[in-house]
């Protein structure tokens, strides 16, 4: 079903523009046109469809479900909801504080907040469209695991001691577990769902379209101009240091999943090992400095440093493990 | 004079919300003071998790999105 986009790119690059096949510029342009048209078309259809289904899900309901859960159930649920609940990253501090003041353990809250940028419907759709279902499953699995284990670790070291004083106080008070009753399940009519889905589509599309162009642009450049085999020879699975290097390189590169997945596609096509690629991409998406500066409002510096180190270590481990598995 | 507080960590939507409320108030002919609250502790104490949030005369009216014109008119017009 995706062949049509490849045909479209054939038509434009070789037909309309009359470029010679197998030249670098033609290959890069072909990659660019195929991927942007595919991604943008897919996003429009799927964001709308998914928004229709999840119209009644919001952070207030997630909080109600998570409060009063057993910790270990909480990590799973927190990471799971993080993947499917829509919320703007500018809301992550209020969400963090809202969960914390409801007595939800910091680890469960962080499982939610860590998974959220890594896995979302746009990322999953792009993975499916560009990299196939196996890679999609690996990506989702790793994302959920990092969220759950990260949350577990944070509670293990009693991260709540390292919150900013006002947040720690709010957590200690734990007003009421009966908050669950405040938020009754909302029944939405089809018209309301349509209105939500339309607004959501416009909102997400406005936010991500430029990332698609930037991401695919970089991917196309790599695709057309980096010689085959170069990455494999220099950054292959044999070089153990390439994984931590990729993770560190990903930190200052601030992007979201939308921008980074086309780059991932291109890196994989060029023979970069799966583990290294995934580690690089997750580091770019999840360990971003602007986000950490925001979190400073709720956490002490020490906790931020721990969180940061935790992400870097876990992405590196993920990269090594996948590279090992990949070579067998 | 009505007191309106827009809660949010300073994202574009919050600024637009504050502007929209001022515009609507002018159109309706109601005097309001619109203030933006960006302090996370204060936002927490209003019990808001999704921003922008809107507080009118001390009461939380809205959260999670930019309110539409009709909603704002309803808050500003006395019942």
H/E element sequence of chain B: EHEHEEH
Number of helices of chain B: 3
Proportion in β-strands of chain A: under 5%
Beta-strand percentage range of chain B: 25-35%
Distance between the termini of chain B: 15 Å
Q: How is the main sheet of chain A built? A: none
Question: Count of DSSP E strands of chain B?
Answer: 4
Give the neighbour order of strands across the main sheet of chain B. Answer: 2-1-3-4
Radius of gyration of chain A from CA coordinates = 21 Å
Please describe the biggest sheet of chain B, giving its number of strands, its sense, and whether it closes into a barrel.
4 strands, mixed
Helix content of chain A: over 70%
Walk me through what this model shows.
The complex is a heterodimer of chains A (328) and B (79). Chain A has 328 residues and is mainly α. Helices cover 75% and strands 0% of the residues of chain A. Chain A has helices at residues 3-16, 24-53, 59-66, 71-84, 92-101, 106-118, 121-156, 165-173, 190-225, 230-235, 242-250, 257-269, 274-286, 289-295, 301-327. In chain A, α11 (242-250) runs parallel beside α13 (274-286) and α11 crosses α15 (301-327). Chain A is globular. Chain A starts with a helix and ends with a helix. Residues 177-184 of chain A have low confidence and may be disordered. By secondary structure, chain B is an alpha+beta fold. Chain B contains three helices and four strands, in the order βαβαββα. Chain B has helices at 12-28, 40-45, 69-76; strands at 2-7, 32-37, 53-56, 59-63. In chain B, strands 2-1-3-4 form a four-stranded mixed β-sheet. In chain B, β1 (2-7), α1 and β2 form a beta-alpha-beta unit. Chain B is globular, with a radius of gyration of 11 Å. Chains A and B meet through α3, α5 and α8 of A and α2 of B.
């Amino acid at each position: 079903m995706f062949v049509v986009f490849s045909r479209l790119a054939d038509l434009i690059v070789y037909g309309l523009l009359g470029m010679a096949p197998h030249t670098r510029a033609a290959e890069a342009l072909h990659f660019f046109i195929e991927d942007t048209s595919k991604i943008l078309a897919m996003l429009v259809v799927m964001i709308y469809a998914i928004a229709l289904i999840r119209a009644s899900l919001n952070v207030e309901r997630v909080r109600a479900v998570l409060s009063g859960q057993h910790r270990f159930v909480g990590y799973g649920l927190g990471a799971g909801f993080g993947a499917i609940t829509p919320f703007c990253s500018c809301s992550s501090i209020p969400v963090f504080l809202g969960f914390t003041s409801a007595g939800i353990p910091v680890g469960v809250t962080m499982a939610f907040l860590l998974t959220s940028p890594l896995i979302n419907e746009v990322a999953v759709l792009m993975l499916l469209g560009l990299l196939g279902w196996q890679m999609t499953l690996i990506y989702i699995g790793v994302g959920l695991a990092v969220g759950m284990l990260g949350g577990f670790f944070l509670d293990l070291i009693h991260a709540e001691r390292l919150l900013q004083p006002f947040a720690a106080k709010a957590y200690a008070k734990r007003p009421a577990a009966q908050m669950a009753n405040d938020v009754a399940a909302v029944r939405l009519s089809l018209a309301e769902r349509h209105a939500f889905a339309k607004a959501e589509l416009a909102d997400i599309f406005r936010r991500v379209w430029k990332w698609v162009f930037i991401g695919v642009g970089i991917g196309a450049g790599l695709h057309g101009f980096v010689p085959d085999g170069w990455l494999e020879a220099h950054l292959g699975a044999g070089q153990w240091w390439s994984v931590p290097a990729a993770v560190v390189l990903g930190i200052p590169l601030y992007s979201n999943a939308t921008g980074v997945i086309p780059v991932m596609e291109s890196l994989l096509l060029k023979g970069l090992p799966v583990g290294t690629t995934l580690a690089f991409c997750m580091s770019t998406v999840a360990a971003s400095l602007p986000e950490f500066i925001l979190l400073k409002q709720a956490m002490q510096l020490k906790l931020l440093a721990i969180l940061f180190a935790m992400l870097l270590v876990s992405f590196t481990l993920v990269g090594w493990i996948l590279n090992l598995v990949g070579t067998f | 004079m009505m007191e309106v507080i827009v809660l949010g960590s300073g994202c574009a939507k919050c600024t637009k919300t504050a502007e929209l409320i001022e515009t609507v108030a002018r159109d309706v002919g109601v005097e309001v003071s619109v203030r933006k609250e960006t302090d996370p502790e204060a936002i927490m104490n209003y019990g808001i998790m999704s921003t922008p949030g809107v507080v009118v005369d001390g009461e939380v009216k809205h959260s999670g999105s930019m309110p539409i014109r009709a909603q704002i008119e309803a808050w500003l017009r006395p019942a």
